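Q: Could you fold this chain for me?
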Amino acid sequence: MLPSFILNRMDSIVTSLENMEDPLLKQFPLPGCSMRDMSPKEEIHSIIARMLEVETRKEEGMETRKITEALKALQGEFSKVRPSSIILESLLLFLKKTKKKPLCSKLILLMKDYLLNI
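A: Sure. Below is the predicted structure, expressed as structure tokens.
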């Protein structure tokens, strides 16, 4: 009796979840998944903007200046209608070499995936 009751409840839960249009916890996204409603290009632009914001808050130094310059160049090239994949890959390699941060790693993965699909 109890097993059939539990199975019926599970079936009704699954059915209601399947018929639901919006995610149940859309207002509470998982960390790192907050930009899932964006296109890959929008997500890349957002990450570059956040990285630029972080770099501009840092104390001015040669490395910070180079990273900021690379991010601005990446942003400019990526905004073009037909961006050069060689320039983008070169800038990504520079960022990979200089920044060992999760946001940079995410940008590199997204950008490589984007470059494969253009």
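A (continued): Residues 40-116 form one domain.
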